[in-house]
Amino acid sequence: MSTTMHQHGGIGESIKRKEDGRFLRGKGNYIDDFVLPGMLHMAILRSPHAHARIKSIDTKAAGVKPGVIAVVTGELMAQHKLAWMPTLSGDTQAVLATDKVRFQGQEVAAVIAETKYQAEDARDAIVVDYEILPAVISPDGAKASGAALIRDDKEGQKDNHIYHWESGNKATTQAAFAKAAKVVRLHTFYPRCHPAPLETCGCVADVNPATGKATIYMTSQAPHAIRTVFALVTGLPEQNIRVVSPDIGGGFGNKVPVYPGYVVATAASLLIGRPVKWIEDRTENLISTGFARDYHMTGDLAVDKDGKMVALRVHLDSDNGAFFSDAQPTKFKAGLFHIVTGSYDIPTAHVTADGYYTNKAPGGVAFRCSFRVTEASYLIERLVTNAAIELGMDQAEFRMKNFIRPEQFPYTSATGWVYDSGDYPKAMNLALEKLGYDDLRKDVEQRRKKGEVTGIGVASFTEVVGAGPGAEFDILGLRMFDSAELRVHPTGKAMLRMGTKSQGQGHETTFAQIVAEELGIPASDVAVEEGDTDTAPYGLGTYASRSTPVAGAATAMVSRKLRDKARKLAGHLLEAAEEDLEWERGKFYVKGSPDRAKTIQEIAFAAYTNLPEGMEAGLEGVHYYDPPNMTYPFGTYAVVVDIDKGTGQVKVKRMVAVDDCGVRINPMIVEGQIHGGLTEGYGIAFMELITFDAEGNCIGSNFLDYLLPTAWETPKFEIGETVTPSPHHPLGAKGVGESATVGSPAAYVNAVIDALSPYGITNIDMPVTSDKVWAALRSKGVTE
Amino acid sequence: MKVTMRVNGGERGGDVEPRVLLVDFLRTNLALTGTHIGCDTTSCGACTVLLDGEPVKSCTLLAVQVEGRDVKTVEGLAQGGALSPMQVGFHEEHGLQCGFCTPGMMLVGTALLEHNPDPTEEQIRWAISGNICRCTGYMNIVKAIRHAAKLQQAAAKTATPAAVPAGGGQ
C-alpha cells in the first residue's frame, strides 16, 4: 500500500515521515520519559500574589518531610550568584524571588525529593509571609500616576516604562496624512494568549560530580544557544555543558526561553550530585512560561480619493509582564513589527511602540510567528478590511488595488525591509476562485435582506521569516546563522546533523529530502539528528519559521560541497577529467557515454577505499549558512461565517487558505503545518485568552479556562498553493510553519466584522466569543 | 496497597500509595511511557487508555480503582512487529506531527471502530473531541481513522468466516 520504499524522496515528493515509527508505537522519547539512576524530582513553589513583598520564608516543616533532599530558596541561589539571570531582551529576571514577587506564579522556592509526590507534598509545607502590594495589570495601569513601581530592583528605574521604539519616517507620514482624502482608524487589542504545546516544559539536569560535566536534557527549541547562555550564567566551562533536546511534544515558541526551573534544577543537581527532574504541570506552563501578544494597537490608514493607500501610522503599547524577557533578536525591541505595512504599496509609514512592565508573567514569545509579525499582520489586515467597509469598497478589490505589484520585487517597504519575491494578486485570485467569491458575495447580500447575519472575511498577509542575516539578527550577540553537517558512510548511507530542533515539524524527513535531491542519496538512507550539542553543529534553533530558510539552505550547501568532492572521486574512478563529467541525481557519468557512470554509493565507498593521490579520505562536511536576506512568505485566506443573532454564536462555514511559501520540499508536511496553523489561528480568534482580574490573578490557568480548539469546533479547511520561489534561497524555499497562524486570525475576525458591518459594528477584540457578539448586536438594538 | 491488573494482555501489579494516579502507575511503575500527561484536568486526552475497551483518561483514575480490570495502552496496539490498522492509518495520512497526542488519539479511534466500523466524519470528530491535538488541525486525524476503518473492513472481508467473530480486522 505504501510506496514510500520505492521513492527517492527528492524535493516535491510527499514521502511519509521517517520519524513516525517510534511515535506510533508509544516509543517517542520525551523529557518526562527520562529516568536516570538516582534521579530526584523537583517541585516549585510559586507566588499566589501578583505583587507582594516577601517578609519571610519558613522551610523547616518542608525540610523534614519524607523523601526531601533539599529545599532551595532565593537566598541560597543568591549565595551562588544565581538568584537573577539575564533575559534574551537585555533585562534581568528573578530565578527564585528574594525581595518581591512580581507576578502570580513567580518562582519562590523549590523542593528536591526522591519522588514527584514527595516533592509536591513538601512544597505545600513551605510557609511564606507576604505583604501584598497593589498590582499593575495593563500598560494604562503601568503609566498611571502613582502606579506601583514594579522593578524597584533596577537602579535608575523610576517608572514602569521599558522601551520606546520607532520605525519609518515621521515627517513624510505626517505630510501624507495632512493631504489624505480619508483616514480610517482602528484601535484593537491583541490579547494575551499562550502557545500551550501539549507537552509542557521540563528538564532533567545531570551534573556528574566526578567529571564536572553538566548534561541537561530539556525541552528546548534552541539547545545550542541555551548551552552558551548556561555557560555565561553559571560560569561553567562550555565544553563541560551538554544540552540535549529529546523529542519535543510541540513548541510553538513556548520552548525557546530559559526558564527559572531549568536553572534551579541544574544548580540543585550540581549541589546534590544527583540528576534532578523538573516537569511543569499545565497550570505552571500557562501562568509562568512564555505567553504571546498582549499588544494594544492603534492604526491609522490614510487613503486618497481614488482609494489608494498613501500612509500608515501605528502606535502600540506592549504589555511585557514583570521582566522584559521577550525571546527575540536583541536589536528588535518590538520584534519584526515593522512588517506592519504588509502586502501593500504604502509610500510612507511611521510606527511607534512603548513597552511596559506589569504584574503579569514575563516572556513575550513569538507564538508560532516570527517575532511580533502576527500582531503586525493582524493590525494591517483588520485595518484594511475596516477601511474598505468605510470606503464602501469591496475588501478584495481594495486589497487588489493596493497590493505591491509582482514587478515591484525586490520591494523596499516604508519601514525599510526588502521583500524578496511575491505575486499577491495571483494568490488572492486563486483564493477567491476557490471560494466562489463573487457568487458568495451575492448570496450574502440576499441573505442579509432576509435578516440573516452572515459575512466574508479576507486577509492577504505577508510574513518576514528565516532570521536572519547575521549582521542584523543576533541573540545575545550570537549571529542567527544555522548549520548542517553531513557525513556519508562507506556504504553510501548518510548522517545529517543540524543546529535546529524539530518539535513535530518533520525535520527527519524534510531535511533528508534535501540531501536526496542535492546528493542523490535516497531520503530513506539519510538519518537526521538534531538537539544534542555534543554532536550537532552549532545553530540558533527552530522558531520564526527559520529551519528551512536557514538550516535547509545549509543542508543544500553542504550537500553541494560533498558533490564537488564526489565529482573529483568520480573522475578518479572513471579516469576522466572532472569537466567531462555530468551529474544526474545519484551518479556522475562521462559526457556522451552514459554507461560510464559511478553512483554516489560507489563514490562514497571510494572515499574510504580508493582515493586519488593527495586527497583527504572521507566524504563529509559542514556548512554554516548566513542568509543574505529574510524570506517573505505570503498568501490570501478567506472565511465565511454565519452568526446566530439569538446567541451570538459564530459558525465558520468555509475557510479557504492559499499559501505561497516558495518551493515546497514535502507538500504533505507543508499542508500539515498549514492545517495546524489555521487551527491555532481559529483558537486565537475565537477561544484562547489569558486574562487577569484587578488583583492580577491569572484567569486562563488551565485547559478548563484556557480553551483550545477540539475536532468538534475546528473548521474544515480548503487549501491551495501558488509557488513564487525565493530568489536568494538555494532551493527557492521560504518557510511555512507559521504562515497560517499569522494570516488566519484577521481572516476569521474580518468575516465576523463583515457580517456585523450592516449594523455599524466595526470591531470586536479577540477572542470573538458569543457573549461579545451578542452584546455588540444588542448594543445596536438587534434582537432575535 | 497491592494492585493487580491486565495491561496489554499480561498480568501486571505493584505496591502503590492509594493516591497514585493510573497514569503515574503506568508510566513510573510499569515504564509504559507512551501514555502522556498533558493537562492534569481531564481536558486534553494525552493520557487516554482503554479500560475494558472504553477510552478513559488515566490522569483521573487511581491505580487502585483499576484492580482486576483490563487496560490497553499504545504499547499494546501493534501485534508482534505489525502495526495495527489504526497505526498504519496515522502514518499514511500524516495524522501526527509532534506525536504527543497520538497514543490517545489512536486508542480513541480504535475503540470507536470497535463500536462503529464505518464512522462518518462527524462521528469521528465527536469521538475524538475529548482529545486535543495542537499540531495537525484534526483533518488528517479524521482521515487516518477513516483509513483504518477501510483497512479493517478490507481485512474482515478477506478473513475466514470463523476468524471474523474473533475480532474482525483487529
Task: Describe what is shown at a glance.
The complex is a heterodimer of chains A (784) and B (170). With 784 residues, chain A is α+β, with helices and mostly antiparallel strands.
The number of helical runs of chain A is: 19
Specify which chain pair forms the largest interface: A-B, 57 and 58 residues
- Beta strand count of chain B: 5
**Which segments of chain A are poorly predicted (pLDDT under 50) over 5 or more consecutive residues?**
1-5
CATH class of the largest domain in chain A: Alpha Beta
Measured by DSSP, the beta-strand proportion of chain A falls in 15-25%
CATH architecture of the largest domain in chain B: Roll
**Annotated CATH topology of the largest domain in chain B:** Ubiquitin-like (UB roll)
The coarse silhouette of chain B is globular
> What's the helix count of chain B?
5
Shape-level CATH architecture of the largest domain in chain A: 2-Layer Sandwich
CATH class of the largest domain in chain B: Alpha Beta
Largest pleated sheet of chain A: 7 strands, mixed
Furnish the topology, listing elements before pairings.
The complex is a heterodimer of chains A (784) and B (170).
Chain A: H1 20-24, E1 40-46, E2 52-58, H2 60-63, E3 68-73, H3 74-79, E4 84-86, E5 92-94, E6 100-101, E7 107-113, H4 116-123, E8 127-132, H5 139-143, E9 161-168, H6 170-179, E10 182-190, E11 202-207, E12 214-218, H7 223-234, E13 241-244, H8 260-272, E14 276-279, H9 282-288, E15 295-303, E16 309-319, E17 348-356, H10 373-391, H11 395-402, E18 411-412, E19 418-419, H12 424-435, H13 437-449, E20 453-462, E21 474-475, E22 478-479, E23 482-488, E24 494-498, H14 507-519, E25 526-530, H15 547-574, E26 581-584, E27 587-590, E28 593-599, H16 600-609, E29 620-625, E30 634-643, E31 650-660, H17 667-686, E32 691-692, E33 698-699, E34 718-721, H18 739-756, H19 770-779
Parallel strand pairs in A: 1-14, 12-13, 16-17, 24-25, 31-34
Antiparallel strand pairs in A: 1-7, 2-6, 2-8, 3-7, 4-5, 9-17, 10-15, 11-12, 11-14, 15-16, 18-19, 20-30, 21-22, 23-24, 23-29, 26-27, 27-28, 30-31, 32-33
Helix pairs in contact in A: 10-18, 14-15, 15-16, 17-18
Chain B: E1 2-7, E2 10-15, H1 22-29, E3 48-51, E4 54-57, E5 70-72, H2 85-92, H3 102-115, H4 121-127, H5 139-158
Parallel strand pairs in B: 1-5
Antiparallel strand pairs in B: 1-2, 3-4, 3-5
Helix pairs in contact in B: 2-5
